[in-house]
Amino acid sequence: MLEDHAKLMAFFDQADEIVGRKRLQKMVYILKKCGFDFSERYTFHFYGPYSEELSTRIEELCNLGFIEEEREKEKGYYQYRYHLTDRGIHFLEQSDLRPENMTTLIEEMDEHSSKFLELVSTILYFQDFSKDEIEEKVQTVKSQQNYTADDFEAAWQFIDRLNAH
């Protein structure tokens, strides 16, 4: 088993359950930007940072029976739930991987909406620019989200808390 797959399994083990593909993408990206050792490469996509590699690894883990993906019909669209299976837990217990503790940050992200995590991850994607430039870029590429000054302030405060960990 590849180490990158095992790291994702450890993430699911600590998260218990992730609801939504977008939320999954944003949470792993934010953890990566906080220094956790995820190797997936990200590009900018419709909903902010997106990793095709992450999507592929999740699909492979589902095919191996280590992660379960449940599809639910929600108001005209499908929502996906992910959790580690018993087989995945057993594999992790037998592996040499000693994962970093992500639980606190995962719990903090769980307190926020996917829309908020999309804002945070997009800000982090443009982190090489000044704060004003970032907000201008986000307002341009995410104009349909109608982020307010309060949304940005909450996101910056959240990023400051993440960086304190």
Write structural notes for this entry.
- The protein is 57% helix and 15% strand.
- By secondary structure, it is of the alpha+beta class.
- The protein has a single domain (3-164), classed as Arc Repressor Mutant, subunit A.
- The chain has helices at 3-15, 21-33, 52-63, 86-94, 103-110, 114-125, 131-141, 149-164, and strands at residues 18-19, 43-45, 48-50, 67-74, 77-84.
- A hairpin with a 2-residue loop joins β2 and β3.
- The chain is built from eight helices and five strands; from the N terminus they run αβαββαββααααα.
- α6 crosses α8 (149-164).
- The strands form two sheets. The chain has a three-stranded antiparallel sheet. Strands 2-3 form a two-stranded antiparallel ribbon.
Average pLDDT taken over every residue: 93
Quick one: CATH class?
A: Mainly Alpha
Instruction: Report Rg.
Output: 16 Å
Give me the CATH fold name: Arc Repressor Mutant, subunit A
Structural class: alpha+beta
Number of helices: 8
The string of secondary-structure elements, in order, is HEHEEHEEHHHHH
Low-confidence stretches: none
Shape by Cα distribution: globular
Strand percentage lies at 5-15%
List keywords for this structure.
single chain, 165 residues, alpha+beta, two-stranded antiparallel ribbon, globular
At a glance:
By secondary structure, this protein is α+β, with helices and mostly antiparallel strands. The chain has helices at residues 3-15, 21-33, 52-63, 86-94, 103-110, 114-125, 131-141, 149-164; strands spanning 18-19, 43-45, 48-50, 67-74, 77-84. It has a single domain (3-164), classed as Orthogonal Bundle (Arc Repressor Mutant, subunit A).
